[in-house]
Amino acid sequence: MKKPYEKLLGKIGNLKIWTVNGKYVRDNLNEEFTTCGEHYVFPFVPKNELWLDHEFGTKDEKYYIDYILTEYKLMSKGSSYDKAWKEGNKVQKREREKDRQFKKLNTLKKEKNYELIKKIHKRLLKEYSNYLKVWIVNGKIVREMFFIDFVEGGHDKVYSFVPEGEIWIDDDISQKERKFILLHEAHERFLMSKGENYRNAHFNSSKLEHNYRLKRKGLDLELKKEIKKNDSLIKKAQNKGYLHY
Question: Could you tell me the pTM of the whole model?
Fold first, then answer.
């Protein structure tokens, strides 16, 4: 098979479940494709197929199949995306809570949240971290403990559970795509720090990300600029006593 197909995982009825090269999809079809997709949300996916992005971190594949199958079934019968998304997440959440480690992690969340954050933090990207801290994180724990739709990355201006002055990059993102996601999150964080709402900040950041996925040249320089802008704002906030670490 040609790109983006990687591996046929199996069939459910007449539906084929494929692992696909998500980077190829984001570079060439739609940068909003994340963990999985189906025809009624992404028309480029054939009607008889469900697509799952290749995973690089802790495996969540079985939960995404639960989600995307529910979404597909409901939308194929005329349900709205919002209803299908909510029902899919209910099914996914129920299955995640059966995980052996869920109760243990949930206890940490209630009693020692800082210990849970330590488990989520995997590696500090020192080449991008000064006043701003950029962490590779365990995305599976974030999805189970805080926000089931956490994908690719996020920061403290969007998610209250992210410590002040941090950007989190999901460990499910390949090293080849990390810079694109970080560029998006850094630009979005800067805009929101200056008072822009999330919707507009996300839209502008998606445009910036898409442009650099297409042209590639100048990505490192642009990324350094965005990190530097965030560093400057965080430094000012620390000096005024607004941020504490």
Answer: 0.81
